[in-house]
Amino acid sequence: VWSSGVQSTATDLPPIHGVPTADGMYWGDAFGGVSPVFLGFFGIAFALGVSVLGAAWGIFLTGSSLVGAAIKVPRIKSKNLISVIFCEALAIYGVIIAIICATKIKATDVIADMYDDQKGVTHYGLALEAGPNVYFGGYCFFWTGVTVGLANLFCGICVGVVGSASVSYTHLRAHETPEHLVCRLLLEKKKKKK
User: Fold this and answer.
1) Residue 185 CB partners (closer than 8 Å, separation 6+)
2) What is Dmax (Cα atoms) for the chain?
3) pLDDT digit string (tens) for 48-74?
4) Strand partners for 120
5) Of 48, 81, 120, 128, which has the maximum CB count within 10 A?
6) Which secondary structure element, helix H or strand E, spans residue 116, and what is its range?
7) CA separation, residue 186 to residues 13, 21, 43, 170, 171 (Å)
8) Coil, strand or helix: which one is 111?
9) What average pLDDT does the chain have?
């Protein structure tokens, strides 16, 4: 028996799409039994949680480099805070998407799919199941949450790596004043001409 409740064939392999299992079930039966409201709220929770995880990871990468470099050269700490601010913005994006999606899930839409004021109980209400519109909305919110969460996770990691590299570069060049930098660039330009 698979963890999804679907029994496999005698060879104990997972069911193939379009081929029924020994008890006549398809994969669509297993996933179709999941409540669309659960899918919607799971997507919202995933967007929020993984966005915060991506922001935390980026802040960890940038912040550790920033603290280490600021110990030796205190004046560079304010120059490299922009990476930390970008990582915090990723968490806020996840919160905004979660709030937008959560306000779109309404119990009245689920009930209206099962009960019609003029005709009474609909086909879906008689079967005590959600209709196609509710399933469509649940899957939309699920995949919205997964997409936003993973995008913010990877963006947080990228901002953290780039922020850490910029802190390292600033730390290496921290002893140079603007005058030294101009002189060094002029000297390198003269070397290239020779």
Assistant:
1) none
2) 91
3) 999 999 999 999 988 888 887 777 777
4) 116
5) 48
6) strand 115-116
7) 69, 75, 56, 20, 22
8) helix
9) 75
Question: Do residues 43 and 101 make contact, with C-beta atoms less than 8 angstroms apart?
Answer: yes
pTM listed for this prediction: 0.67
Tokens of 186: 């002029």
The SS3 call for residue 75 is helix
CB contact at 8 A, 62 and 171: no
The SS3 call for residue 117 is coil
Task: Quickly list H helices, the chain.
Answer: 27-32, 36-72, 82-104, 107-114, 123-126, 132-172, 178-193
Percent of the chain with pLDDT over 90: 26
What average pLDDT does range 11-33 have in this prediction?
62
What's at 177, amino acid-wise? T
| Tens digit of each residue's pLDDT (9 = 90 or more) over 6-21 | 444 455 555 455 566 6
Q: How many CB atoms lie within 10 A of CB 176?
A: 12
Terminal Cα-to-Cα distance of the chain (whole angstroms): 77
